[in-house]
Amino acid sequence: MTTHEPFSDAALETVLRRRARSGDPGDLRERATAALEQTRPRRFPWSLRGWMPEIIPAGRLTPVVAVLVLVALLAGALIVGASWLRYERVLVPTVVEVVTPVVLTDSRLVQDGAGNMWALGDGQVTRLDPLAGDRQTWTVSDDTRFMTHVASPARAGGVWTWSGGTISRFTGSMFVDPIPTSSRPIAVAEAPDGTLWALSADHGVQRWADGRWESPGEAIPINDPDTLFASGPDEAWIAGNDDSGYCGPPSPTSPCEVVAHLDHGQWTVYPWSNTAFGPIAPVTLVRALDGTIWAGPAETGAARFDGDRWVPVEGPDKEPVQPLAVAPDSSLWAATGDGRLVRRGPGGRWTAYEPQWDLFGWASPRTTSVAATTEGVFAVAGQRLFQVEKDGWTELWPDPTPGPRPDQFGIRALVGISASEAWAAVVEDVPFGDQEAGLWHFVDGGWEGPTQPRGFEHPVSALALGPNGSLWAADLNRVAVLRSDGWTTAWASENVLVDGGLDVGSDGSAWVGTADGVVHITPTNGGFDVEQVDCPVPGRIVAVATDDTVWVVGGGWGFSAGLASVTGGACELVYLHDVYAAAAYPEGGVVVAYDQANADGTYYSTVVRLRDGRQSLLAEAPANTGTTGVAVAPSGDVWWAYDDPVAAPAGDDGDGGPGGLVRLHGEERVQVVTGGQPEAGPISISPDGTVWFASSTAIYRILPDALP
Asked: What's the pTM?
């Protein structure tokens, strides 16, 4: 992360004035002038200099009238802009550290209306000045609102983000223009005229108009949309996966990509059978300055919308291409199936732009994003940023950590050893299932890996820390322990399916969940003693309390749900709630998170502590079905990681809230990280109190000394 001073609104205005007076092409000059106009009404209401004379000539104002006008203006500002004034504009640093490197993996290059270029990735926002070699990245360490999966360029400069129930515009120094949302958006897009659109699973496509969200048409016709593209105040596009029959008989096993167009309240659906779109890759949409919409890949190239229908455009050698950007000269930049970067000039000729051999060697990575601007063409490939020119590629941002990293994969399990050490079990998400990626070890400030326990044939599904510092791991049918001499298999079975739960008691013995209950593994001088304990629920989660009670959580994979306890070798069902997470409490008992239904069909996610047959309510959140973990610190604080799709505003009593990472400190509920992360992951607390948690794109750490 760079340390230079972020741009202020004044600096932004200076840049815009320079661009508005420059000899840039007319379209850029007009955009800069329009963006400049957008900066003027954003001045603080109490900064009277500069706009008071425009309202009433100063010479005609008596002192009394001046005072009355000032009071009226301030009162109006307080009434009309109360929510705006309450919104935290400046950045508020957090106690959260990002311990995976900030890279350009899967980042999307865009240019805002002020001409600034941004790299937008899940959980991070980077502003780039490629020609000056300058960049600045913001993460959750800088403000919890950067823990977002939604980011889109803004016409007035900056980017639109969503976090914690609010869409706001980040200018490069502060968050402005807050807009509340009642659901978690899948995507946000601003049309060329300034109309802001949002796509969500709960409300479909909506636009922000007259201070409220409105649905401009019928319900969206795609059942799994993932892309939103805005063309105007009454026009928008969506694309996504659908299995409702557009591509043939309805079948959840053979969905296809579908594009849909909303025009003045009416939807038109374009399935692959009518437009040459095939179920070969997610459809991307890009727009030229003249308003032309491109989409692809198509069966033999891409497609261009002519106002009534999609016109197929052949790719190089009739190869399908994925549109990435349209340059100011109307040339189309796209990626081929194997990731090569190609350009279709205004005359229709395709040209390949391949990097020099010495940049990547024989294995050139896929080009994932392109920004085609008046200042040049820039591309992201292999976690690196390049400027693309006719005579070759120039590297502008190298990969800070060449080779694989844990944040490139799905994080299955995480265990903290101390403030400076942790282990993560990760898997690579591939189209036909999880591909083994192994274990990663964080030590000495960096990550080492991947490795795999000796004898494991499947991805590691669970990790646990023993009282003597030993690391235990389990896959589908094997459990092993890591000692000074390497990995040792403690138990293996081809007939008993390990369901994922694993924990170690104070005596050093391990308990592992299976489809039939739990297995108790006790280390001995000569090896390990193994005992099977049958339970009425499978061991999806296992938590061993300090009083040696073993708590077993069921559910998942089609197995019965519930919570059971093992004492004295017998397993008894406690209750039948569908528990999402559980953790042992240091003073005895267990903390669990589960959903309970209301009479009206809605749900409350509830966190309770069970001890000595009694249940104590710790916290609850409305309509949440996304708890990913609970953990208990040595101090007794409960940490709750969950993702609230509704993101209801927090009430005065502390209940509700926007999800994310919550610390339950006695009677106090502290929102440490606001909801908005792309996909919450596991959470672990090391014996020294360090909190480790993960999203789908990063691993984070909170040191105990940083907590109030």
From this structure: 0.78
